[in-house]
Amino acid sequence: MDDGASFLGFLVWYLVFIVAITFHEAAHAFAALWGGDDTAYMGGQVSLDPIPHIRREPIGTVLLPIATYFLSGFMLGWASAPYNPVWARRYPHRAALMSAAGPAANLLLVLLAFLAAKISLWTGILDAPGRVNFERVLVPVPSLEESHWANLLATVLSVGLNLNLLLFLFNLIPLPPLDGSGILGGIGPRGLRRLYDRLQDEPMLSLLCLAVAWKLFSYGPFFSLLLKLLHPGHRYGG
Description:
Distance between the termini: 26 Å
Radius of gyration: 19 Å
Number of helices: 11
Oligomer: single chain
């Protein structure tokens, strides 16, 4: 792959990544504001402008994604929206909704990308590939194989579908610091909330939980289901 194509691939990945995490964190911030906590609002996070989110977490939104992409071909990173822990303890159900709002935003992006992908398939712009991977679940039809815009559209939709689905599913795992722990802690018994609070207060334990969650997480079955919905009638090997 030449340098121009590699750089274009990076730009596509980074654009999709930034949109995904910006929607995710803005949804957290908006839900918190709606529930009575203006901490994120005062920090500028109730916004789809990525700049406040980048400014808050420059390592997770700039340095790490760039490094992981050029080292592994995959983009990892994080962002965060602040909230008042006193508010969260006082209103656990509202805090649970705040936690659920982030994954819900990624699910909305999945549905929008899926709809756009289906329209592109129905209109004969894109097609099912012979072999699939994370950034290649759609390809241009043969007559458009040399078209830059068709290849760009296929890559944007492929990465957008998979990355947002991954963020939605992974963040639902109920281990801190993932959103699933905030959802379960908000609607579960008080003892579980206290346990999660203690884990959140210990950065090393949070990192350990994150490592365990990633080890336990299997994207394979969900990826297979996505392919079946996207390309019914096509069969891909495991």
